[in-house]
Amino acid sequence: MALMDFIRGQLIEIIEWTDDSRDTLSYRFPDEDKEIKRGAQLIVRESQMAQFVYLGRYGDLFGPGKHRLTTDNIPLLTKLRGWKYGFDTPFKADIYYVTTRLFTGNNWGTANPVMVRDQDFGIVRLRAFGTYDFQIVDVPRFLKEVAGTDDHFRLEEFTDTMRSRIVSVFSEALATSKVPALDIATRYSELGEALLPLINPALQEKYGLEIGTFVIENVSVPAEVEQAIDRRSGMAAVGNLNDFVKYQMAQGFEKQGPGAAGIGAELAVGLAAARQMLNEPGGLGGQVTPPAAAPAGQGLPESLSPADAARMLGVTEADVIASLEAGDLKGKRMGSQWRLTRAHLAQFLQAP
Fold first, then answer.
1. Distance in angstroms (rounded) separating the CA atoms of residues 153 and 136
2. What is the pLDDT of residue 305?
3. E strands of 159-256, at which residues?
4. Within its chain, how far is the Cα of 292 from the centroid?
5. For residue 195, which phi and psi values (nearest 5 degrees)?
6. Judging by DSSP bridges, how do beta strands 35-44 and 11-15 pair with one another?
7. Can you tell me whether residue 192 is helix, strand or coil?
8. How far is it, in rounded angstroms, from Cα 294 to Cα 344?
9. Predicted confidence band of residue 75 (pLDDT cuts 50, 70, 90)
C-alpha cells in the first residue's frame, strides 16, 4: 500500500495554473521530476495557452478548456515520444503556460535620434515616444525567440528588450511609409494607426507578437526644422509676402511709433509707406500722428541689396528674395545677386 501511494505521488494527475500577478508572460509548470499520468487532466483557462515541449522540441498546443491527455489528444507528443505499444506508461514533458491577454499601457521611446529621409527637409533626425498595447499570438515563436527556457518570464524582464525592438521596427516602418516630418509633428493619432500594418507583420514574424494599439505621444525634431515648420505655418496664416510685410510694419508703428518698424523716420520711402498705411480706411490714422517728412533720400542709398531691404522692411532676407523671385517685388538680377531701388520698394508697399 505504501508503495502504491509512493508511485501515485510521483504521477501528475491535474495540470493547471492561475496567475494573479498581471505581469506574467509565460510560466513553466513545476513538475519536480514527476511524470504525467496517462489520462491526466489539463486545465487551460481563458487568456491562456499551454505548450508541451519534449526534449527541446515543441509538441502539442492546447487552448482554453479541460483536456484529457490520451494518445488521441496529444498526437504530436505521442509521435515525438515514440511509444511502441500505445500510450500506456507515464511520460515527462515541459509544459509552458503562456498568457495571451492584451498587455496595455507599455511605454516606448527612441534612446537616440532616428535618421529619416524627408521630402521637404532632406535627412532629418527624429525623436519619438508613446505607448502601445500588445498580445502574444504565436506561442511557439514567442517561446523560442523571446522567453526561451525562463521558468517565469515577467513583463518587467521584457520591457527594455521590447522597447528596443519596437523602436527598431518603428524606425523601419517610418522610413518605409515616407510620411513627411510636417505630418508626423501634427497627426500623431493618424500616424500611429497608419504604422500598425507596417509594424505588426514584422513583429509577428520575428517574435510572435501583435500590437493592438500604437500611440505616438510626441515627435521632436531638431531646432532648425522646428523653425522651418513655424515659418511655413506662419506664412500660410498670413497668405502672401506683400500682406505680411505691411502687417509687420503696421505692428511696429502701432507698438513703438513711426520709424520703429524697420524703416527709419529719415527714410523718405519709409515715411511714404507709413503715411499710406496710417491713412488707409480702418488703419491707424486716428491712433498715431505722422511725423514731419525728412529730406528725400537722406541716409538711404539708391541701390539696395536684399539684405538692406530686409532690414528696412523688418523681415528676413529670404523673404525678400522669395518675393523678388515671385515677381511681387521688382528688382534686377545681376549674376547671382539681386539689386533693387527705393522706387521698387515704394511700388511694392503701395501695391494693393
1. 13
2. 85
3. 209-220
4. 58
5. -80, -20
6. parallel
7. helix
8. 19
9. confident
